[in-house]
Amino acid sequence: MASTSRTAHLVRRVGSALARAAAKRPVRRAPASSQRDSQPGSERAAYRGDFTGRATISYAPQADGDADPGEVIWAWVPYEEDHTQGKDRPVLVIGRDGGDLLGLMLTSKDRTSPARRQGPDERPRWHDLGTGDWDRQRRPSEVRLDRVLRLAPDAVRREGAALDRARFDQVAAAVRETLDW
């Protein structure tokens, strides 16, 4: 009986260790369905692909619980080189494409070196945004200008904050310049 008890205890410890290790994985797989779940690592709305074309940039934040242009939200964002992998990150909503949200991803990594700041055509890729309530640690953020994300509204995991109009207008001008809108 003591051997069975030890084995059960060992199995529980190994299972707990595996669960902790799986929860710490930084890379998450893309969702297979369109269901939204609030638990990290669970299925989310399928990524609709990067937006190409011209869009109308608008500013219309509303404290209504829905993602609106001018707000920073959190969503699962796929890596550019592999849309089956990505991570949760802040996204500035800049407009809509039908029922989808159009957004620009944010990062707290500093992109000050010219090689990282500009694309091959020497146009800016990143714009300093500053700090905001979307980051609990109040780290300075930068917004990527040359990749427009198209997200289903149910892909939004939470709202972070509304960006003030002056900073939004600066980002909008930089996006228009970078993308020739």
Describe the structure.
The protein is an alpha+beta fold. The chain has helices at residues 2-23, 114-117, 165-179; strands at residues 28-29, 71-79, 82-97, 100-107, 126-130, 141-144, 149-151, 156-162. Strands 1, 2, 3, 4, 5, 6, 7 and 8 form an eight-stranded antiparallel β-sheet that branches. A hairpin with a 2-residue loop joins strand 3 (82-97) and strand 4. The protein starts with a helix and ends with a helix. The relative contact order is 0.19. Residues 23-43 have low confidence and may be disordered.
Mean pLDDT: 81
Q: What profile does the largest beta sheet have?
A: 8 strands, antiparallel
Helix fraction by DSSP (H/I, runs of at least 4): 10-25%
Gross morphology is: elongated
Order of helices and strands: HEEEEHEEEEH
Structural class by helix and strand composition:
alpha+beta
Count the helices. How many? 3
CA radius of gyration is: 20 Å
The strand count comes to 8
Poorly predicted runs are 23-43
Strand content: 25-35%
Question: What distance separates the N and C termini?
Answer: 74 Å
Tags for this entry?
alpha+beta; elongated; 8 strands; eight-stranded antiparallel sheet; 3 helices; 23% helix; 181 residues
